[in-house]
Design brief:
The chain is α+β, with helices and mostly antiparallel strands. It has one domain. A hairpin with a 4-residue loop joins strand 2 and strand 3. It is globular. The model has no long low-confidence stretch (mean pLDDT 89).
Length: 87
């Protein structure tokens, strides 16, 4: 199974590709780094629900997708993973 990855924006307009640990409408858990040097972060929706934001070691991380878009992504992933059984 391939790890789900998303692109997040870090301070200074730098773009990082990170691994998604868990995704829900109210929070997205991401993992930065690999092996022993990884750090977990929780991204929560902003006040206007147009993005998700979090902080690691004092640095702000932003995922530029709205809550509605993430909700649609989750629904699509669930639909794709559901398999019909035929006899």
């Amino acid at each position: 199974m391939a790890d789900a990855k998303i692109k997040v924006q870090v301070e200074g307009n730098q773009i990082l590709e990170v691994v998604v640990s868990d995704k829900a409408v109210d929070a997205i858990w991401i993992i930065l780094g690999e092996g022993l040097n990884n750090v977990k972060c929780k991204l929560t929706p902003t006040r206007n629900s147009l993005a998700f934001a979090g902080s690691i070691m004092g640095r702000e991380i932003i995922y530029q997708r709205s809550v509605a878009e993430v909700k649609a992504d989750i629904a699509q992933e669930e639909h794709d993973s559901f398999q019909f059984r035929t006899r």
